[in-house]
Amino acid sequence: MSAPVRKTNLDVSVFSIAGTDYLCDLKNCTLEYQVQTEESRGVCTPSSYPWAVGDSWTLQGEIFVNTTASVLSTAFSNSLVTIVFTTGANSYSGQAQVTSVGHAVGSNQLQTQNVSMSGFGPLVIA
After folding, report:
1. Which SS3 state, helix, strand or coil, does residue 73 take?
2. 36 and which of 54, 55, 66, 70 could share a cystine (Cβ 3.0–4.6 Å)?
3. Taking the complete model, does pTM exceed 0.70, yes or no?
4. Number of domains in the chain
């Protein structure tokens, strides 16, 4: 019997926003997929059950600031971007609308940019 496989940060192989690779600068990110449901039942069915009526996805990330790439400048130039995120055998891609970008500076800390995006269209999972 084999041990379960645990994924770590070392399994991430691609993280790009608008064609710019941020893999070496990525501190953390969260990709969420939500399904909206409504209660439904058949005419002759006494119980109800959830019925999928839509879906959405979001991505939040924290990226270390370097001298060659800036999520902030990408957001100013075009708020609709393509994201690609690959970890192990899972790859996610899609169009996203940048909803917020912040630049954090702390005493004796590396500068980071925080980015939030909402999916614009389907999230492709390969």
Report:
1. helix
2. 54
3. yes
4. 1
